Request: fold
Amino acid sequence: MPLFYLIAKLQNALMHQFIPWLGEKVFHLPYPITEFTNGSGDTTYDYVVLCCVVVVSILATLIWSALDTKRGNYNRLYYWLTVGVRFYVGLMLINYGLVKVVQLQFSPPSLYRLVTTYGESSPMGLAWTFLGFSKGYNLFMGIAELLAGLLLFRRTVTVGAIITLMTTANVMAVNYFYDVPVKIVSTALVVMCLFLLVPNINRLFNLFFKGLPTVLRTLDAPLIAKRWKRIAKYTFKYLLIAFVLLGGIAGLINSYSRYGAGAPKSPLYGAYKVDEFNTTAKGDVKKWELLLLQTPEHGAIKDTDGLEWVTVNADTLQKKLSLAFSNDPDNKHQLNYKKEGDKLFLRGRIYVDTVVISLTKMKFELVDRQLNWINERPYNK
Reply:
C-alpha cells in the first residue's frame, strides 16, 4: 500500500514501547518481549497486539452502541468496511500470487536442503521443500491467488470470495499443521473471506444444497452526486491497483534474478562428496565430508564438526578456487582445481596445511527425475 511503511513506522514506534510494558505489567509474562516484526507473524508481541485489538474492539462497540441508539442502519459504513476488507485480502493475495508465479516464495530445493535428511528438517522446512520442488505447482498456486483480483470489483466479489476462501483455508491448514509461524494472519484472511460471503450465505446455501435458483446480492455503492468525486474515486482505485501490480512486478524481477530460481549459480555448481582428503596435518584442518558450491560467492563445507558456510569464488580461467571461512572471512585460501566429468580435484593450502582432495558430484533423485505420463508401477522411493 502507498505510504503504508511510513504510517506503520509511526505506529510501531509507540507499540514497541507499549506492548512490552503491557506484557510485563498486565499479563505478567515470564519473559520480556524483545522480538518484534520479523519473519514470524506469531510472536508473543503479535499475540499481545491481537489481544489488545479484541479488547479495544469490544469496548468501542459497547460505547458506540450505547451512544448511537437512534441510528436505523450503518449501510454506508458497512459498504466501505467491505471495500476495505476486499482490497486488503485482494491486494495481499495478489502479492503472494506474484511471488509464487515466479517461484520466489518457495524456491527450488537448495543444495543444503538436498543433503539434509528428512529427519533433520523442521516441519516448515519440509513443507517449503515439498512446495518448492515443483515449478508447475507454484504456478498453479500463484494463479489461484491472483484470482483474488476478483475481490476488487463489486460484481465479482462473491465468486472471488469463494475462490479466496479455498486458497486461504489451504494456506491456513499448512500453517497450522506444518508449524509455519503465520497462523494469525492466515486465520484473519479466512475470517475476512467468510465476512465477504455473509450477504449471500443463504442464497449460496439454497443454490448448492437445495438446488434452488437464486440471484446473488451485490452491495450498492453509496451515491456520489458530484462528478469530480466519482472521477477521483475511480482514479484512486485504479492507481492503487496499478501501484501494487507494477511495484510488485518490478520487485519480483529484481528479487528473482538475485535470490530466486533465476539467481546465478557457481560455475562448479553442485554438492560434492569427499572421496579422499589428504593433508600434511601441520595445523588443525578438519577432514571434509561434503563441499557445497551454490552461488558464485557462497557455499558450505561439512566436516566432522558439522556444516560451515564459506565465501567461495571459482576462477574458471586460472582454475583456482578461493575460499574463506565464516569465522575468519579475511583469510582467503587458494586451491587449484581440476574438473573431469563428475570428479573434482583440489590441491592447495588451507592455513599452514597442504591439502589434496578428491570429490565426486552427488546426484539427487528428487531433482533429476522428470515427469512421466506413463508409469507401469508407482515409483515411490
Notes: The domain at 270-364 is CATH 2.40.128.270 (Lipocalin). The longest strand covers residues 270-279.
